[in-house]
Structure formats: structure tokens, C-alpha cells
Predict the structure.
Amino acid sequence: RTRSLNAPSPFQQFGPCGRIMKNSAMVMQIQDPASQRLTWYKPPLTVLVIKKVSDASVLAPFVQLVIWLLHEKNMVVWVESAVLEDSLLNEDTQFRDIRDKLVTFKDGRDDLTDRIDFIVCLGGDGTLLYASLLFQQSVPPVMAFHLGSLGFLTPFRFDNFQEQLTSVLEGHAALTLRSRLRCVMHRKSEKRHQAKHMDADEQTNPVHNSILVLNEVVIDRGPSPYLSNIDLFLDGKYITSVQGDGLIVSTPTGSTAYAVAAGASMIHPSVPAIMVTPICPHSLSFRPIVVPAGVELKISVSPESRNTSWVSFDGRNRQELFHGDSLRVTTSIYPVPSICAQDQISDWFASLADGLHWNVRKRQKCLDELSDLTASGSEDTFDEFENLKLYDV
């Protein structure tokens, strides 16, 4: 990998004399994001179906989808083992007939790497976040159906799922590669030789001791009444100290989640960037910043801080960050390939309109609609103005 994950390669020459110095670590060149489309080099056989938990409205679509995948597409269907323990689902006679045909796994115990060809999510954005959590390396293509409350990451409607799934399985689909953040905790209590061994192992196995997040990693003050005092480094260089309630480091996908609520801008998921957003900073001039994808952020508790900090990863795995500990965050080489319902641009702006009612306001009336108002008083006003001019003369 290179330092930047998705940045285009710049033009090499500047005028007759200047050019970029040749470097083996030069930024790689990528295709236009709009041309990123899904293709299968062989027909997919195994599909993982993830449904929203504790939601009775998802049960009927789930059974309908699983039956169709088994009987019509002859695919091997994987589900989480907890799904089979749903009492309401087991009351369905259709589900009982296919229950034994499903392959199950347990979260945290079974490794799904290289076992799944395709993922279908039924529910809200949390189902896609859960799919990202299950695959800490390469993620299969994800097709997300909107059966939840918000639906930023779930562009598909379930009404005609057969036609939409058939089209995707035949390879007719655009992709949005949603970058993830690779987060590694470094504890002060670890011995130096153990840290060196970890660093060497991470180069060959990037999953070791790391967590991949799709939305954001949040550093906050926890239950302490004191302000957080967090030091921020970028590629080893000290940038600033964050004094406030905390800090959000998010992907472009996560920019429309916690970050936008804290005052950050919204970034299209195809933009190669990392968003850094302070939470209620004790400074009027501390604005959110965007840094290039691929840089490494180091976050640690300032030595003069009155308290420790707490870290959570996509709202999970909350743990305390003590003095001397550090959190290192960079762009992961394993994005989440999210299948588009239409295309990258249409899906994103539709999600802004539906989810946040972005730029929704009453339209200004055009002049034709105001003609009755102008016609009623315009002549009188003009005559009065002319009379005043004559009187002044």
C-alpha cells in the first residue's frame, strides 16, 4: 500500500524544467470512482443475510428473502446463530421448513474470512456497521435494504427485491468503496520488546491488535467532570491539543453521523479523506479539519490532563485511555464495497434529502405568482413618486 489510499496520481512534469522526484512510495493512480462497478469472475454461491434484531417487521421480509435465495437461486445461506433462537421467527411455518438448510455462525467465535461471496442486510444502518465489524479484512459486496429508521447506508427498497438481487448477481451494479479506519491501541504497560514484536507482526498481519471502523472512533472524557485534554499528532508531528468534551475521527461515511451533529461538513464517501472533529471545544476558533487519507493520526492523553479519556469504535468496544497510552488511526486498505441502488451521486444526495432533510425549505415565489401584488399598487406608487419630483422642482 502507499501512504494515500485513493488519491489520484498528479501530473509528473511542471514546465520545461520541473518534475516530481521519482519515488518508489509515490501515490498510486486509481480509476474514476464513478467507473467502479461490481463484476463476478464466477457465480456467487454463498450469501450472508443480516437482519435487524428485535424488530418484528423484518421477520416476514427475512423469510421471504431466504426462501427465494434457497429455492430460486440455489445459494448457500448463512445467518447468525442467534437468528434461529428468535421465538417469533420459529412460529412461522415457512421458516420451520427451511430452518435446517441454513448455515449458522457465532459472532466472535467463527471466522467468516473467505467463506462469504455476498452480503444482504435487512434493516437500518446498524446492519451495515455490523457487517463491517464481522469482516476485519476483505469485505464481500454488501447490498443493504432499507427496513430501519434512518437509512443513510441502505439505498434499496424491498418491494421488488427479486429483480434488484437478480441484477446484482448478474454483475449489473455500481459500487461505493466506503473506506474504513484502522485503529490500534498502544498501552504504556506493554514492554518495549513486546511492542516491537507487535509492530513487526502488524506488517504481515494487519488485523492483529487492530479494530476497523466504518463510521468513527470517538475519544471523550467519559464520566469525568473535567475537560478532556488530548494531544493530536499527524504523521509523528504535534498538531494541537483538544480541550473540550472530546474528539471524533471519522471516515467520509461517518461524516454524516456523529461528526455532522458536532458541526462537521458532510463528505461524499468516495472522497479519500479523514475528518477530525472536536466535540464542544473550549475554543471559538477550533473548527473541524479534513486530512488526506493514509496519514497516521496519533491521539494520546496530555501529561497535564486532569483525567483519563475513553475510546469507542463505531459505538462499541468502549475502553479507557490512560496517561501514557496512545491510539493510532489511519486509513485501512480494506474498504466496504457498498452496492448502489442507482449510482454514487444519486444515492448519496437521496440519503441526505431523506435522512437529514438537507436544504429543505419553502421555495421563493416567482414573479408570475406575485403579479397580482405588483399590479394592485405599482401604478399608484409610481404616480405618487412623479408628483413628489414635480413638487420638489
Observations:
- Residues 353 and 359 are 8 Å apart (CA to CA).
